[in-house]
Design brief:
312 residues; Nitrilase/N-carbamoyl-D-aminoacid amidohydrolase
Length: 312
Amino acid sequence: MISSVTCVTDRDEMMNGLVYPALRSYDGSYADRRLHVAVAQVHSGGSVDENLARIERQVSAAASVGADLICFSECVLQGYGYGDDLTAEIVTRVALPIDSDPCDRIVAMAQKVNLTIVVGFFEVADGTFYNACLVAYPDGDRFCQRKHQLTETELAVGLTAGGIRRVPVIVNGVKCAVIICSDGGMDGLYERLRDEGFDYRLCPTAGGGTMAAMLHESDLDSTDGRRRYEEARICAFKSDALLDLTENQGIGFASANALGPVGASTCHVGHCMIVDNHGTMRGQISGSPILEHQQDSMIHAEIQFPKRKDIL
């Protein structure tokens, strides 16, 4: 039973009937608002049922450590491919409405373990196709945030851009924005987030990669294999304990990359990060080009935020 469904459209002033005014002041206290956030990478090259089973295992793991919210990767429900692994026919075949059975099952997971769940998927609504994220709340509410800044490939396969504005995901008084992959490059994004009082970013991404570029653990026995591994790892692991605030813009993020083979030639290397608003790296799953090392995983961290009185 759906108690609330919202989708962000080009007229995306819809905010579930609530008004969230801009952040006006901090009083310096970090005692009142905390978000225990988890992010997970899971293989998504299987069927929707198989992917849901993987999602549910990580949801259960996040709930067992007391997380308030878990974020999965872009289009994790059906798998995100590249080249011949992402076509108009594939999108048309796999896309799901927000009230479909798989989405119902994700909402049921959220209700069962009292956890907000963010899951990327290909969505269809009134015959229009989107790259979207389902946000499922523990009280049974749900909404879709749609990707705005689509790639050339996404446009070519018939996906439609969602609106610019972000519907807030509010958990424990912390106001989060879902920023799907290349939406992170939208002009004026950080100014809008600050003006609208967002505290934190949830960043589902695909990541990219091909099976041809992957390695096996046995390749580490050779000098060339070790060189290829080191070169690939630079792209999938941040060694910084503290990120530059010009990169972080003072608004931290939890990011989840896609993992493993999808279709005939796509293979994602994984990688997840949790970074707080100071730019501190609070948790990281190192992406890997080694197929045997690409394992479903979850990380979590409790992030503190200054007190604010204007959230609700």
